[in-house]
Design a protein that fits this description.
Layout (H helix, E strand, L loop, with lengths): L1 H58 L9 E3 L5 H17 L2 H7 E7 L11 H13 L4 E10 L2 E12 L2 E2 L2 E2 L3 E14 L2 E9 L1 H9 L5
Parallel strand pairs: 1-3, 2-8
Antiparallel strand pairs: 3-4, 4-7, 5-6, 7-8
Helix pairs in contact: 1-3, 2-3
């Protein structure tokens, strides 16, 4: 009898090990299935968001047109020109939907001004700050050049300095200056931007009327 009990005690850990191993296997399988389900749900949600963004972008109509357009008439030329005009429409209206419709999610400002955030956040904040100084800001596209995957745009900014710029209060000074942008466009979105603004003219106009 003692021998039987001894054998039973000796064999019990093996049964327990097998049971624990099987239970662990089932547990891992359940966790893996749950994680897979969550991943699929996340991908589905991301896909739905992308589709929604695409639908919103498709409904956007540029608010500005180029006075002169020169294009290589490549298959992607129209999409590149549209992205450039959507971005110009953002500066023209201050409507963030145009920025999101024109700029890629990984957008990079290649000539980033000091103090400006990188990515889409940068132009959104810059537009808001500039419109605080020039609420009636309007933008026109004087020239649009489309070659390969690039667009070069000559922009003209107009308005009246009636708001606040830093510590300076506007007195209705006329604002009229130009900028030149170059965009790299992929899949209809601007991925990179190089830009040069005529800040000398802008700052002289902002300061006009404040000198004694």
């Amino acid at each position: 009898m003692d021998r039987v009990n001894t054998l039973y005690v000796q064999r019990l850990p093996a049964w327990l090990s097998l049971s624990l191993w099987f239970s662990g296997f089932i547990g891992i399988a359940i966790v893996g299935f749950s994680l897979a389900s969550l991943s699929m749900d996340a991908l589905a949600a991301q896909g739905a968001t992308t589709q929604d963004s695409a639908k919103v972008r498709a409904t956007l109509v540029p608010k500005v047109a180029a006075m002169e357009t020169i294009s290589d008439e490549s298959p992607q030329a129209l999409a590149i020109a549209r992205a450039a005009l959507l971005y110009a429409s953002f500066w023209h209206t201050g409507d963030a939907s145009f920025a999101h419709g024109a700029l890629a999610t990984g957008f990079i400002d290649r000539t980033l001004p000091a103090g400006r955030a990188q990515g889409i956040t940068g132009p959104l904040e810059a537009s808001k700050a500039f419109r605080a100084a020039v609420p009636d800001l309007s933008v026109s596209v004087e020239h649009l050049l489309v070659v390969g995957d690039r667009a070069v745009v000559r922009l003209r900014f107009n308005g009246r300095f009636t708001g606040v710029f830093g510590e300076q209060k506007g007195q209705g000074q006329k604002i009229d200056f130009r900028a030149v942008d170059m965009y790299r466009v992929r899949d209809g979105f601007i991925t990179d931007n190089w830009h040069l603004e005529d800040y000398q003219t802008l700052f002289s106009q902002l300061a006009a009327g404040t000198q004694s």
